[in-house]
From TrEMBL:
Organism: Botryobasidium botryosum (strain FD-172 SS1)
Keyword set, alphabetical order: Endoplasmic reticulum, ER-Golgi transport, Golgi apparatus, Transport
Record-linked InterPro entries: NO_sig/Golgi_transp_ligand-bd (IPR024096), TRAPP-I_su5 (IPR016696), TRAPP_component (IPR007194)
Record's protein name: Trafficking protein particle complex subunit
Gene3D superfamilies: Trafficking protein particle complex subunit 3
Main location: endoplasmic reticulum
Length: 189
């Protein structure tokens, strides 16, 4: 019988986790956390922290797979390719599809938004009425923050519900970049 540590990571690239198993695990994490928090902000902070821990591992796994299969692996040093990598590759790895859009804020030059009109992470979560302001996509925001930090683009990432008639569960992942990132991008122009 083989041990999980002996398996080749590249052979599990196409493997998928059962969506119902993920939904059950995430639901249990929500219930466990809900019993140990004092409010919605605390709950979202804890979900974001959990997501950050997941994001570190996702980036490590994706980097390892990319380096082992590519003859000339590269690391993104510019912001837009890094955001595009998150929008497409990371999202596909996590959710099986790319995010719906990525946008730059018109008001602030240090803000970007990743839009997901139907986030799989919240598809089967029912939130109690007293916690209606809770956005469980805080977990996704934590993942994005960890990936950005790991790529060398420190940022503060939050999740916000932006429902529309066509997409009642639409979520925006707001990325507020550290000033040093904006200054570095300006210097590279």
């Amino acid at each position: 019988r083989s041990i999980i540590y002996d398996r080749n990571l590249n052979k599990t690239r196409a493997a998928e986790v059962s969506y119902s198993a993920f939904a059950f695990l995430f639901s249990e994490a929500i219930q466990y956390t809900q019993k140990r928090v004092s409010g919605i902000a605390d709950m979202e902070r804890r979900l974001s922290t959990l997501g950050y821990r997941v994001g570190i591992r996702v980036l490590e796994l994706m980097s390892w797979r990319g380096e082992s299969t590519s003859k000339a692996p590269k690391r993104e040093i510019r912001l837009l390719p890094a955001l595009s990598y998150i929008h497409t590759q990371v999202w596909k790895t996590l959710f099986g599809k790319p995010a719906d859009a990525i946008q730059k804020s018109v008001e602030n030059d240090d803000e970007y938004m990743i839009v997901d009109n139907d986030p799989p992470i919240t598809r089967h979560i029912s939130i109690p009425r007293e916690m209606s302001q809770l956005n469980c996509s805080a977990l996704t925001a934590g993942i994005v923050e960890a990936v950005l930090d790991g790529l060398g683009f420190p940022a503060r990432v939050t999740a916000h519900s932006m429902p529309t008639d066509a997409n009642p569960s639409a979520t925006v992942i707001l990325i507020k970049l550290d000033r040093s990132v904006v200054e570095r991008e300006e210097a590279l122009k």
